[in-house]
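Observation: inputs received (chain + magnesium ion).
Thought: call the complex predictor directly.
Action: predict_structure
Action Input:
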Amino acid sequence: MIIKTAKFVKSSSSFALCPVASMPEYSFIGRSNVGKSSLINMLTGNKKLAKISGKPGKTQLINHFLINDKWYLVDLPGYGYAKSSKMNRYIWNSFTDKYLKQRENLLNLFILIDCRIKPQSIDLAFMEDMGENSIPFSIVFTKADKISKGKLSKNIQIYKNEMLKNWEEMPNYFISSVVSMAGKSEILNLITEINKNTVFENKKKPKRF
Ligand code: GTP
Ligand code: MG
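Observation:
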């Protein structure tokens, strides 16, 4: 797929304020600092499109980017543990939760995981929640340039083993690096396929498959 245009549309502080759900939409979520905004910039070939930062918590709103005037990429705020909470629950803006569970044109969610770290209960709990709510998702293991190939495949095997304790099969996954551009064509190919296979029966209600 060739990305001809990538335009910032708006930042929304609530579900209701998001753009009309009339086009296919693909969103990026994961813990703060995992590389969501960087990945959107890598996919679109525009380093300045989504704001990135070395400090966690940069993205605080739901950010829509219109691609080729036909579909959206969405940069979401990261989730994290509540500082005061001892519970193993992810927390975030409640509007992100509502967005994920009610956005009817959200065709695939990319859940980003730092490939260097062992499985974290916060990410596993989040994926369970997405599964229970039938939200289609893929995993993206980010920052692959930061470890050796051997370590990377070992970490992914560890992740698969952990996932298979609760899932019948390992969800679809990608390996990415904004330095080597790994994962770019694979992720864009998936989006192309989903776009092809999705019928918008009326302008507001696409059919998830
Ligand atoms: P929040 O908006 O705070 O939730 O963070 P985010 O998930 O959007 O992360 P962001 O894209 O801002 O990146 C966080 C840091 O990781 C930045 O310093 C990026 O340059 C760095 N980073 C992201 N992806 C990669 C990657 O593939 N390789 C390397 N080496 N660094 C990366
Ligand atoms: Mg961000």
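Thought: report the result.
Final Answer: The mean pLDDT is 90. Residues 32-38, 52-54, 56-59, 78, 142-143, 145-146, 177-179 surround guanosine-5'-triphosphate (ligand 1) (CB under 6 Å).
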